[in-house]
Amino acid sequence: EKEEEEAAAAEEEEEEAASDKEVDLEERLGELDLRSDSDVPDVPPPTDSTPEILKRALSGLSARWKNWWIRGILTLAMISVFFLIIYLGSFMLMLLVLSIQVKCYHEIITIGYRVYHSYDLPWFRSLSWYFLLCVNYFFYGETVADYFATFVQRREQLQFLIRYHRFISFALYLTGFCMFVLSLVKKHYRLQFYMFAWTHVTLLITVTQSHLVIQNLFEGMIWFLVPISSVICNDITAYIFGFFFGRTPLIKLSPKKTWEGFIGGFFSTVVFGFIFSYFLAQHQYFVCPVEYNSETNRFVTECEPSELFQMKKYSVPPLLQAVLGWETVNMYPFQMHSIALSTFASLIGPFGGFFASGFKRAFKIKDFADTIPGHGGIMDRFDCQYLMATFVHVYITSFIRGPNPSKLLKQLLILQPEQQLSVYKTLKSHLVEKGILQPSLRG
């Protein structure tokens, strides 16, 4: 009996010790979850990537004016390259969007890699890039199936990939998911799941939004250029107004942003968008939907412009008639839509920048990277563009887009002859009932 009592007491002591260990472990993990921002590990500051020739030329200026000139020169250079890519056509713009997406993804993933000291995590970087590949395969495959149906139909080797595209995409993702589970190691579980979530949020921010940018581009280059240019204009003019006239801080997340810059940027952007839209709306190259011509293997932008891009006469409101002295004004309907786009770019778009500022402050970094001297990383310049891309896509689907006969015809041409004949008979019967066709019509 004594031995049994001693054994029972020993078991109780072991259970209590194990329980204490579990409680202690939970408390320590809880402390990790409740860490303040001051406990976040420091990320090495980015190096100064300013070219030596600029450093020497601007050596006599104060730090404030030196930054002004560096930002100005690099801004003009980037705008020039952007116009060159526009001249080269839609395909080069798509490659530009893809390149920016990959670079932004790399910058955000690298921050997570450094902040959480993920150097010893197995397969982390490989899996991060694998998931990027999977998600891009899915989205770009959807684009190919949607806009290049005729091209795919002529190539048997692509038909299998398109037919089972979603299944293949899901299988690829499952492979990465299983690889992640197999990579889990003791003492690193929580950190590995942190980084898994970090990767997927980054994919949501970068890949999904860049896909929407390309979808907007296919609606017509003007839906790509006006929103992007409006964000760029707002960024530049808000900086200029803030630099020269800024006195009142706008938001604590960005101490350099001022109300003067915010308001000046708003009015400048609306005026710019209205005028810029007027010039773009005159050219088919910018207003026609981007379509792929399978016969020439090229993207074409030729069409009869829709009503949005045909000049119309509008009555000026009585209040403005006294100021302007005009009773009517001629303009393109798209210019009215440009006001909505510019307003969003200048009032809501900056919140993408504020969000990015909060993110950088959370991890004690000044910029996402040092890719562009005076500007920081690519993500520092395109943080507002992602919000803009989503808004434009929603705006088009809600207020602009209607049935597309050209797109529907492409889908019908993919069908088997029997299916096409069935569609033809159904459509003919419907048109006869509507009185559009005479019953005696043969075909």
Automatic annotation (TrEMBL):
The keyword Lipid metabolism applies. Residues 1-17 have a biased composition (Acidic residues). Its EC number is 2.7.7.41. It is found in: Membrane. It is an enzyme of class 2 (transferase). One of its GO terms (molecular function) is phosphatidate cytidylyltransferase activity. Keywords: Lipid biosynthesis, Lipid metabolism, Membrane, Nucleotidyltransferase, Phospholipid biosynthesis, Phospholipid metabolism, Transferase, Transmembrane, Transmembrane helix. Residues 1-22, 31-50 are annotated as: Disordered. Belongs to the CDS family. This is Phosphatidate cytidylyltransferase. It comes from Spizaetus tyrannus.
